[in-house]
Design brief:
single chain
């Protein structure tokens, strides 16, 4: 569990929370909004650690009794709200863990802090139960709602919370982290960073995922051989993707990045701007034989495939239509 100085990026949010701690201007309810893997939990825990530190500064000292209790996950004034049902946080969870315990004053610190992860899973009844506590909180109460979908909250909850939206990190920041901490070559780091789209947690996950490596090699094979594949080869390839249980969403991401490279190279002829630098020959070959209109058609076909998959159209059919457009263009 790190302090603020150990967290990469999110400078505005860190500054906001550090100022709140430094000047004792802590709000009673916060919403940290951002996709999974972006660091919401780390920010919430760094804030809790800072507020429960006996030094009362804007960074935790990591040495006092309060910090040691938080770091060993047994501080009585830091409550991680749990839920029995995986898909929802019910009214009983909120009443039992937040509403019923909030009136009890902090045992040792100035604050009593509740962290609700995946808070978008709160039912409407649970949110209404929480609303009563947020409307009239005791001076020491701090509730942190972590969510990947802020639209799931009632307007009444949103209006009473300080909203902090996490923004993606720069690709270069993610790449440098992977190179320094996972002994990755620059080229590899750039690819994982591009796939993660500024989400460090996702980049770390992909870098250690065997499934991702399998998808990567299958996609390279496809894009290097698509021109000479006939319809039965394409159908066999789709079947193989399904049998190997490869993430189709990641395949589409891969294709989008690949054709972005092709388009980029067609316009600039600059190898340094490519994500797939080691595939320069293939990218160059495709850029020579595909016109701008053709590449637009391909990128549009990938977008259409995403929409159709979300609408539950048959996966094999969607991929077949998309690959045929890619082959033709």
């Amino acid at each position: 569990m790190p302090g603020f100085s150990d967290i990469l990026g999110h400078e505005t949010i860190k500054e906001n929370l550090k100022n709140a701690a430094r000047f004792h201007k802590v709000s009673h309810a916060y919403i940290l909004n951002g996709e999974k893997g972006m660091g919401k939990k780390m920010l919430a825990e760094a804030f809790a650690l800072t507020l429960l530190c006996e030094k009362q500064g804007d960074e935790p000292c990591l040495e006092c009794h309060g910090c040691r209790q938080v770091l060993s996950h047994n501080h009585p004034d830091l409550i991680n709200v749990t839920h029995e049902k995986p898909a929802s946080i019910g009214v009983e969870d909120v009443r039992r863990q937040i509403n019923d315990t909030m009136p009890v004053r902090p045992y040792s610190g100035e604050y009593k802090i509740y962290i609700v992860d995946e808070a978008e899973k709160m039912t409407v009844q649970a949110q209404n139960a929480l609303l009563k506590t947020i409307e009239e909180p005791p001076s020491y109460g701090v509730i942190m709602l972590l969510t990947a979908n802020v639209d799931a909250f009632l307007p009444t909850i949103l209006s009473r919370c300080v909203q902090l939206n996490l923004k993606p990190l720069k690709d270069s920041v993610v790449r440098d982290y992977l190179m320094e901490n996972m002994n990755m070559k620059e080229q590899e780091g750039e690819i994982y960073a591009a796939f993660a789209r500024g989400n460090l947690g996702k980049a770390i996950h992909l870098a250690s995922s065997e499934e991702f490596k399998l998808m990567y090699s299958e996609m390279l094979y496809l894009l290097n051989h698509l021109k000479e594949m006939d319809i039965s080869d394409i159908l066999n390839f789709i079947r193989r993707l399904r049998e190997e249980d490869i993430d189709i969403e990641e395949c589409l991401d891969f294709m989008q990045l690949w054709y972005r490279d092709v388009l980029m190279f067609k316009v600039t002829k600059d190898v340094n701007l490519l994500i797939f630098k080691d595939q320069y020959t293939a990218v160059n070959e495709i850029s020579k034989h595909s016109g701008y209109d053709g590449l637009e058609n391909i990128l549009s076909a990938i977008d259409k495939a995403r929409v159709r998959l979300k609408a539950n159209v048959n996966t094999e059919l969607v991929l077949e239509l998309m690959l045929l457009v890619m082959k033709e263009n």
